[in-house]
Amino acid sequence: MAVACNRCLHHTLRVDGALERTERRTMTEQTSQPEKYNIAVYCGAGFGNDPLFVERAQQMGRACAERGIGVVYGGGSTGLMGTVAGAALDAGGKVYGVVTHQLVEWEGVYPGQTTLDIVDTMHQRKIAMINKADAFVAMPGGPGTLEEFFEVFSWQFLKIHDKPVALMNVNGYWTKLIEAMEYMSTTELLKPEYLQRLIVVETPEELMKVLGK
Fold first, then answer.
1. Which end of the chain, N or C, is less packed with Cβ atoms under 10 Å?
2. Residue 154 in this model has a pLDDT that exceeds 80
């Protein structure tokens, strides 16, 4: 899918002193200043085989839009990622996509995003999403979703950020992962207080309640 973007000046991203240079492109002529509160949504580029995954993704997009919360996500048009973005945009919400040049070629981007940052590397992509977000939630997804989740989860107790991190355990999707982390805690390789900070919910409505939204 080809999307026309307006090229703008380079800007610098910063996370705990780490600098990353990215290329800024926006899908509108508006500035890309984020909303007051944004949630980064990590989820699959596929749909999975459980219809509830899609239903919860739609609900997540709508829940954010209804509350004036911006969706920060990976920019793609496919799978659960595209479902969250589409639902938010259809409900009048704001969507801030961040994608690599390579993924634009492979997967395309969802049309009509509020802003779209196209960067060179996955590392730049993740830092840009972290900078834009005030909270993070991992919905059903594969290894890429796990990587993104564990990065923001571990950075929380490393004090690189102090933002809420959540798992949306749709139909038990993350139950075995939660059990694995609980076992890690019993071995004293994951401190119990770190695990206690993790938010675990089943629906977008529960997440909004925990976040006070």
1. N
2. yes
